[in-house]
């Protein structure tokens, strides 16, 4: 399958221009949508999920016009929103059975098999009788994926699913997501660069409603080879370095500020050492073109 987003724009009633001429092409596999808070990631996902209208542009899923043929899209879609409520007094198993019924799985035996399979897949089988209100954040997210998978969707959208998860739960969630991507398009929105480097074969960086970069992580990192330098400085020196260099990230370690700079041409003075680029450098060097990275 192929999802082609062409010149999508959206301005909210309050005047916020949340999507500016967004164009992207997504194939089967995991696609990461990376951007800081307020970048427009949720706006884009809600539009693709047929939950809100765009002002202009088009979204095509193969031959299907996503913005027009909403009912058909919803039949092909699995969606895990950023925040979703659960009925606290209902066990996971019963809730999944109910959702499967709503999605049109009428046969009780078929439903039982489907629900059991999903619970096993997301590692909640032993907790299936527990009320959803007693689930931890990670268990809720895994439940969220199970409900999104009902109906064998061809397009799966997950909006910041790892926010707030501890490292073990995040890993469990990564493992789960990485099994989904092969025959489906999975769009994963996140502001965590590691999510993209771990999971995604392709990604885009979006900031202030605009696509700043789209491609595969390896090529993106390779393009920065020999251009990233680092140095430990005193905090008081940051102003100087900000004025002289393109500082793309700062990190405090044992009282010293470790800065990384991008040199498009030439080599820096001041005792910088050359360093191996990573996806975070790709992210910050793109974002730094639009916003002050010290504020994000
Ligand atoms: N319903 C709305 N009405 C008005 N403005 C909105 C609405 N939804 C989002 N916005 C604004 O649109 C911009 C993009 O928001 P969006 O939620 O799409 O970003 P995001 O990248 O998902 O951010 P986050 O990572 O914080 O969830 C922000 O400035 C936000 O305040």
TrEMBL record:
Pfam families: ABC_tran. It comes from the Bacteria. Keywords: ATP-binding, Nucleotide-binding, Transport. Residues 3-233 form the ABC transporter domain. GO terms for molecular function: ATP binding. Belongs to the ABC transporter superfamily. This is ABC transporter ATP-binding protein. It comes from Mucilaginibacter ximonensis.
């Amino acid at each position: 399958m192929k999802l082609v987003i062409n010149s999508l724009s959206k301005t909210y009633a309050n005047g916020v221009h949340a999507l500016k001429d967004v164009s992207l092409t997504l194939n089967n596999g995991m696609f990461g949508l990376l951007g800081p808070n307020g970048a427009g990631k949720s706006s884009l996902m809600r539009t693709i999920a047929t939950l809100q209208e765009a002002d202009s542009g088009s979204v095509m899923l193969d031959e299907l016009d996503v913005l027009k043929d909403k009912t058909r899209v919803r039949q092909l879609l699995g969606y895990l929103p950023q925040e979703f409520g659960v009925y606290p007094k209902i066990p996971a198993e019963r809730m999944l059975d109910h959702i499967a019924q709503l999605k049109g799985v009428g046969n009780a035996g078929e439903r039982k098999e489907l629900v059991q399979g999903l619970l096993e897949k997301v590692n909640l089988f032993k907790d299936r009788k527990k009320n959803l209100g007693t689930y931890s954040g990670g268990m809720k997210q895994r439940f969220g994926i199970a409900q999104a998978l009902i109906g064998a969707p061809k397009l799966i959208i997950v909006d910041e699913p790892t926010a707030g998860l501890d490292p073990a739960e995040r890993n469990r969630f990564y493992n789960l997501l990485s099994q989904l991507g092969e025959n489906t398009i999975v769009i994963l929105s996140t502001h965590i660069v590691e999510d993209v480097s771990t999971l995604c074969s392709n990604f885009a960086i979006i900031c202030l409603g605009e696509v700043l970069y789209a491609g595969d992580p390896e090529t993106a990192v390779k393009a920065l080879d020999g251009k990233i330098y680092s140095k430990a400085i005193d905090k008081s020196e940051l102003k100087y370095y900000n004025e002289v260099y393109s500082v793309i990230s700062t990190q405090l370690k044992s009282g010293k500020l470790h800065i990384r700079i991008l040199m498009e041409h030439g080599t820096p003075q001041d005792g910088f050492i050359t360093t191996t680029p990573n996806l975070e450098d790709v992210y910050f060097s793109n974002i730094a073109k639009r916003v002050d990275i010290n504020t994000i």
